[in-house]
Every structure is written in structure tokens, then in C-alpha cells.
Amino acid sequence: MVVLSKIYTKTGDKGETALGNGVRVAKHSARVTAYGTVDETNATVGLARQHSSGDLDAALQRISNDLFDLGADLCSPDMDKDAEATYPPLRMIAGQVARLESEIDAMNTRLTPLRSFILPGGSALAAHLHLCRTVSRRAERLVVELAASEAVNPEAVKYLNRLSDWFFVAGRIANNDGRDDVLWVPGLTR
Questions:
Q1: pLDDT tens readout for residues 118-138
Q2: What contacts 74, CB < 8 A, 6 or more positions away?
Q3: What whole-number distance in Å separates Cα of residue 89 and Cα of residue 30?
Q4: Best CA proximity match to 73, nearest among 90, 88, 86, 85
Q5: How many alpha carbons lie under 13 Å from residue 61 in its C-beta half-sphere?
Q6: Tell me, what DSSP letter sits at residue 22?
Q7: How far apart are CA 76 and CA 91, in angstroms?
Q8: Nearest-angstrom CA–CA distance, 41 and 64
Q9: Which of 73, 76, 130, 167 could bridge 120 with an S-S bond, Cβ 3.0-4.6 Å?
């Protein structure tokens, strides 16, 4: 259980922060940048939820919780010590990726195939979901970059990859099942 009785600690005043294992690192480290961008993704989900309702809102709430799980996973770098830990760190699992895939497939059955790229926009919810998509893509790039030099749970990378696809398809659902998508017209303003 997390208990936050005091919000500021002053321990980061010199540009360092603690990872989940207690090791202090620079706030600009690749790991902190990666999980910080996951947190930013979660903030965009909160904005999208201001425009959502029903099943889509419930799915966004699940995703928001998953993103906290993902941040917890990324801030705990000792992958090889998980089995021996008294309190093993929270890790993303294949079931979370599979749930996204299942939801993408279910939403996609409602949509006609695209014959053009689409522009972010249409409804307010769709525009916010496209923001979620682009920020989650940035988070994915940063996590992949981190994985090139440090241990990262492969399910974390898979989750982010599916998540941006989820946001794309959900954006189309938010645009009247794609009927109100704003289509890209190549060279329109030439």
C-alpha cells in the first residue's frame, strides 16, 4: 500500500531521483525519461476520459491503471533479481497485451477498411485519442531505446506497441465508427 503523507521530499533538488530498487539516478536518465513519458501518456488518457463514456471510458480507465503498472515495471530495473525478491516488482504480463489485442479486434469489426490516412480530429474524443496515440508512440520509442542498453521487460514494449494501435482504432470509433474521420488529401494545399 502506498502512503503519501508528504508530497515534497527535497531529495531530488540536485537532479537525481530514486528508482524502485532505491538506486539514485539522474532525472534525465533513459529509464526515468521512458517511464516519465509513460506517465505523460497516462495524463493524455485522463484528458480523453473527459470526453468518453460507457465501454470506451471503462477501457480507458483500465488502460490508465495499466500505465501505472507499466511505470512501476520500468522504474524497477532488476529483472534478473525478480524471482529472489521478497517483494517482487510489478511487471507487465502477456494477458495485458492480449486484452488490448482483443479489444482492438472487437472495435475493428465495426469499421470499414481505410483507403486513406486519417488526420487527427473529428470529435473532441477522437482528437484526444490521437494525442494519446502519438505520446504513447514516443513512450514506445524511448522504452525501445532503453532496452538497447538496459534490461526491460519485453511485455512492456509489446504493450506500448499495441496501445498506440488501440488508441488509433478507438479514435476511429469515437468518430462515429469512422464515418466522421478526417481523411488526408495528399497535396491538398499545393
A1: 999 999 999 999 999 999 999
A2: 31, 34, 35, 38, 143, 146, 152, 156
A3: 19
A4: 90
A5: 8
A6: S
A7: 9
A8: 9
A9: 130
Give the integer Cα–Cα distance in Å for 41 and 6. 25
Give yes or no for a contact between 126 and 147, defined as CB atoms under 8 angstroms apart.
no
Bridge partners for 17 per DSSP: 25
Structure-block grid coordinates of residue 5:
503523507
For the cut 70, the answer to whether the pLDDT of residue 1 exceeds it is: no
Q: Which domains does the chain have, with CATH numbers?
A: 24-178 (1.20.1200.10)
Buried b (16+ CB within 10 A) or exposed e, 14-52: eeebebbeeeebeeeebbbbbbbbbeebbebbeebbebb
What are the cell numbers at 163?
496501445
Under 8 Å CB-to-CB from 119, ≥6 apart: which residues? 182, 183, 184
pLDDT digits (tens, 9 = 90+) for 78-93: 766 655 656 778 999 9
Among the listed residues 91, 103, 73, the one whose alpha carbon sits nearest the alpha carbon of residue 165: 103
- Give CA–CA dist 2/149, Å, rounded: 30
**3-state SS assignment for residue 142:** helix
What span, in angstroms and rounded, lies between the C-alpha atoms of 59 and 100? 9
